[in-house]
């Protein structure tokens, strides 16, 4: 079909010519540079791979595989059409296919870990159903930390999983455990941590111990009650399940504090819509006023050391692979590094944002040896999320997210854990582990490198969306937003011009992004369709870890709001580090 018709009213129609995807001028020039008489030979393609795509180890065999893949009739080379087909094809992704390539022999505290929050909820935090389905979905995506809130059931003789004090409908704990066992290692062989928020009596704890032991058997990591001097490494824990919790007495104390916090925050609107609001800025505005009231906060879920464990069922106590603690005494006590043992500490999003103002370097120092978990504030009823970079740039391993939602913050989370083969563990940059000098996130550093991004063209919307999805009366008016999520000095968003009435937009625009901390930076890409009278329509998104971004001209597949890959929608882009 060469033309497309839109009905404007019952007696009038508009017809638009359908363009054919064509190589941009830059691509044509590059083809001419590396080809002879309209054909790019194996040698020419190999030179292109080395010089433009920066694939230093590319061989003639690699070039031949590309020629074979585009099914071109000329076995000894490719013409412009076949060359463009290769560039825009699945064989040319933006991230290197390296598999798991980080050093996995360091302690667990040396990794960012893909972490879920209230992993059993299917929707909002107040009234959605509890189920094992979101747990399964998270594990399939590569999430490595699953959170379960465990409560006595209505007859007090069994254990349910639910969000306490809400209208969420429960799911049986045993069902969740069995699903975790079945799907734990589908996406990754590396360990799955189950964090238990425990509201049980000792007799039900004993029942949980029996369930967990029988369900997981030999794959359960049970080191006993002793504290580690250093956490084991992910490599040694492959295909193991680890239980992490703290004694129930602490939760009883915490509930009163949490109720007070909830009452004080109730009625405040969430700062992120279902998908549309921008990722919160980290340049200081949201934490500037917290210094004064930090010391006035109640001490949430503190413990008295061994005294708080007197009611623990012994079988249950022996299940705990990573013991969570929060000693009395406020932030200074919480963040004190014990050279003889390591622990896991949990902190709410609000408390963490306040803590980084006065204790930023202490948090970085603490997270070199110990594990810190930050979870969303209790007023995120819609299961939205916060900016994960505030956690990562302070060394936080478990930035806990509501995985069942969607939105820009969650897209960043998905992007970060595309790194290291999608195994759910990403090695922290060396500067966050340096024992000699503690990284200070507040200090602006010199530019290390500059990423130059060219947005050429896009395609696929015509096949993945109905022809009136974006506009009932004409083809869509697309523009692309591209930018960086990272430390405050690096974070920025820019956008292309709007191209009207075109299913195959060709922007051919160049952007430059100076990077002071490229190790933590993510490339954000979004496509929108301009709407003069209403909110702009969504046309796809992706986030890519810059540490694994391939130089050269690449086909960048786009994803839906929920993070599901479109069948056909993608952009042709060029990435250069200058």
UniProtKB/TrEMBL annotation:
EC class: hydrolase
Entry GO MF terms: phosphatidylinositol-4,5-bisphosphate phospholipase C activity
Cofactor: Ca(2+)
Stretches assigned to the C2 domain: 427-560
SUPFAM superfamilies, A to Z: C2 domain (Calcium/lipid-binding domain, CaLB) (SSF49562), EF-hand (SSF47473), PLC-like phosphodiesterases (SSF51695)
Reactions catalysed, as given in the entry: a 1,2-diacyl-sn-glycero-3-phospho-(1D-myo-inositol-4,5-bisphosphate) + H2O = 1D-myo-inositol 1,4,5-trisphosphate + a 1,2-diacyl-sn-glycerol + H(+)
Annotated ranges, domain PI-PLC Y-box: 346-432
One GO cellular component term: plasma membrane
GO biological process, one term: release of sequestered calcium ion into cytosol
Pfam family membership, one: C2
InterPro entries: C2_dom, C2_domain_sf, EF-hand-dom_pair, PI-PLC_fam, PLC-like_Pdiesterase_TIM-brl, PLC_EF-hand-like, PLipase_C_PInositol-sp_X_dom, PLipase_C_Pinositol-sp_Y
Ranges annotated as biased composition (Basic and acidic residues): 253-271
Ranges where the record places region Disordered: 253-287
Annotated localization: Cell membrane
Keyword field: Cell membrane, Hydrolase, Lipid degradation, Lipid metabolism, Membrane, Transducer
EC number: 3.1.4.11
Topology in the lipid bilayer: Peripheral membrane protein
Listed PANTHER family: PHOSPHOINOSITIDE PHOSPHOLIPASE C 2, PHOSPHOINOSITIDE-SPECIFIC PHOSPHOLIPASE C FAMILY PROTEIN
Record's protein name: Phosphoinositide phospholipase C
Source organism per UniProt: Gossypium laxum
């Amino acid at each position: 079909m060469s033309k497309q018709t839109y009905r404007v009213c019952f007696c009038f129609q508009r017809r638009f010519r359908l363009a054919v995807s064509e190589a941009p001028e830059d691509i044509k020039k590059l083809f001419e540079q590396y080809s002879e008489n309209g054909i790019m030979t194996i040698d020419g393609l190999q030179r292109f791979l080395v010089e433009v795509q920066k694939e230093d180890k590319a061989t003639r065999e690699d070039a031949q595989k590309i020629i074979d893949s585009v099914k071109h009739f000329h076995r000894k080379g490719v013409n412009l059409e076949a060359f463009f087909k290769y560039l825009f094809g699945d064989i040319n992704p933006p991230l290197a296919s390296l598999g798991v390539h980080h050093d996995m022999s360091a302690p667990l505290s040396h990794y960012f870990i893909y972490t879920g929050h209230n992993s059993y909820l299917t929707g909002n935090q107040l009234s959605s159903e509890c189920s094992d389905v979101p747990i399964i979905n998270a594990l399939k995506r590569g999430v490595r930390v699953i959170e379960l809130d465990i409560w006595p059931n209505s007859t007090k003789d069994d254990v349910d999983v639910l969000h306490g004090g809400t209208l969420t409908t429960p799911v049986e704990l045993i069902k969740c455990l069995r699903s975790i066992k079945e799907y734990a290692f589908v996406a990754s062989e590396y360990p799955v941590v189950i964090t238990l928020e425990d509201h049980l009596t000792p007799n039900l704890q004993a029942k949980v111990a029996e369930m967990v032991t029988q369900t997981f058997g030999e794959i359960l990591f049970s080191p006993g009650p002793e504290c580690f001097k250093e956490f084991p490494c992910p490599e040694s824990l492959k295909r193991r399940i680890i239980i992490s919790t703290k004694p129930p007495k602490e939760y009883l104390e915490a509930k009163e504090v949490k109720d007070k916090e909830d009452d004080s925050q109730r009625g405040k609107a969430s700062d992120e819509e279902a998908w549309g609001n921008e990722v919160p800025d980290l340049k200081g505005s949201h934490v500037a006023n917290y210094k004064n009231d930090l010391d006035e906060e109640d001490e949430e879920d503190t413990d008295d050391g061994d005294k708080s464990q007197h009611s623990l069922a012994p079988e249950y106590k022996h299940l705990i692979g990573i013991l969570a603690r929060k000693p009395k005494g406020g932030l200074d006590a919480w963040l004190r590094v014990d050279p003889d043992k390591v622990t896991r500490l949990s902190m709410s999003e609000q408390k963490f944002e306040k803590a980084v103002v006065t204790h930023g370097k202490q948090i970085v120092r603490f997270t070199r040896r110990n594990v810190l978990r930050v979870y969303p504030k209790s007023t995120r009823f819609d299961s939205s999320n916060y900016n994960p970079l505030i956690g990562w740039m302070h060394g936080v391993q478990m930035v806990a997210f509501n995985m069942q939602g969607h939105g820009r913050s969650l897209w960043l989370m998905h992007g970060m854990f595309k790194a290291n083969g999608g195994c759910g563990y990403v090695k922290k940059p060396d500067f966050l582990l340096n024992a000699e000098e503690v990284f200070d996130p507040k200090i602006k550093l010199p530019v290390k490198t500059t990423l130059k991004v060219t947005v050429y063209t896009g395609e696929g919307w015509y096949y993945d969306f109905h022809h009136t999805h974006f506009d009932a009366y004409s083809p869509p008016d697309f523009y692309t937003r591209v930018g960086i999520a990272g430390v405050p000095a690096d974070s920025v968003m820019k956008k292309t011009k709007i191209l009207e009435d075109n299913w195959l937009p060709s922007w051919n625009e160049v952007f430059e992004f100076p990077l002071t901390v490229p190790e933590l930076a993510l490339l954000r890409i979004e496509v929108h369709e301009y709407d003069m009278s209403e909110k702009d329509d969504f046309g796809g998104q992706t986030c890519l870890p810059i540490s694994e971004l391939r130089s050269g001209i690449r086909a960048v597949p786009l994803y839906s709001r929920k993070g599901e890959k479109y069948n056909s929608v993608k952009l042709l882009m060029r990435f250069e580090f200058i």
